[in-house]
Amino acid sequence: MAETPALDSVDPVTAREFRAAVLEHYRLEGRSFPWRDTHDPWRILVSEFMLQQTQTIRVLPKYLAWFERFPDMECLVDAPLADVYEAWRGLGYNNRALRLRQTAREIVSDHGGSVPVDERSLMALPGIGRYTARAILAFAFGKPGIVLETNIRTAFIFHFFPGAVGVSDRELEPVAAATMDEADPRTWYYALMDYGAWLKKREPNPGRQSAG
DNA sequence: CTCCTGCATA
DNA sequence: TATGCAGGAG
User: Fold this and answer.
1) What is the pLDDT along chain A (212 residues), one digit of tens a residue?
2) Which residue has the closest alpha carbon to B6 C1'?
3) Taking the C1' atom of C7, which residue's CA lies nearest?
4) Which of A100, A116, A141 is the C-terminal boundary of a domain?
5) Are residues A159 and A92 in the same domain?
6) Which is nearest to A172 in space by CA: A2, A9, A21?
7) Strand B interface, A 62-121, C-beta < 7 A
8) Closest nucleotide to A95, Cα to C1'
9) Which chain A residues 93-152 have CB under 7 A to strand C?
10) Under DSSP, is residue A20 helix (H, G, I), strand (E, B) or coil?
11) At which of A141, A157, A180 does a domain end?
12) Are residues A168 and A114 in the same domain?
């Protein structure tokens, strides 16, 4: 890291005010989910696999049923593929269920059964890219990092690039860095996601741009 | 960069 | 019925 001198595209006062507003919104209207009530890295990992492709409302019952059937990582490692697909049914993208089992297997075989705590190792696992790796680090381990996801992009664009279309992640990253709550990235990103989701409900399509 | 998925929505 | 989605992979 540290090749681009991240100049402040957001001054500290603006960043602080933005943080305060988002956290206040979270306090008033923040959502509650079972995967937010745990720090268990495996549970958070499973939730992120599901949330990659499916909205929270539909993930919720599947997530709960999943852990009824596969209470821990080892249960999934040993599970027949047919059982895995059956538990996944309704979420779509069956290949990702396969990748989730493969990730469980690799965590057991290569990491002693513990979800790795570094981005590179996480990204080496099948089905885990930059977003999911950093989300796991933030939500399970409280490690700060730049996490860009659709709702978070919406929140940043709405406030810092109002009306703009096609804002790139390269442009959003300095904003993410300047506004992040290093002391509590977990709460911060929950709040930011909820705020973005809330904005989308009110004003559809404030703009999106995929990763590069 | 493009392609992929399985569902939701237009 | 066609297109959009949202993240990972190639």
Assistant:
1) 333 434 457 899 999 999 999 999 999 999 999 999 999 999 999 999 999 989 999 999 999 999 999 999 999 999 999 999 999 998 988 999 999 999 999 999 999 999 999 999 999 999 999 999 999 999 999 999 999 999 999 999 999 999 888 899 999 999 999 999 999 999 999 999 999 999 988 865 554 443 32
2) A92
3) A52
4) A141
5) no
6) A9
7) 90, 92-95
8) B5
9) 99, 123, 125-133, 149-150
10) helix
11) A141
12) no
Other CB atoms within 10 Å distance of the CB of residue A166: 10
Please indicate, yes or no, whether residues A58 and A121 belong to a single structural domain of this protein.
yes
> Which chain B positions come under 7 Å from a protein C-beta?
1-2, 5-8, 10
Rounded to two decimals, what is the model's pTM? Answer: 0.91
Residues A137 and A149 in one domain: no
Estimate in Å the CA A92 to C1' B6 gap, whole number: 5
> Can you tell me which residue has its alpha carbon closest to the C1' of nucleotide B1?
A212
The rounded distance, in Å, linking the Cα atoms of A70 and A97 is 13
Query: Does A44 share its domain with A114?
Result: yes
Q: Which amino acid is at A79?
A: A
Which one, of A137, A171, A178, lies nearest residue A153 by Cα?
A: A171
Could you tell me if A136 and A150 lie in one domain?
no
Helix (H) or strand (E) holding A21: helix A12-29
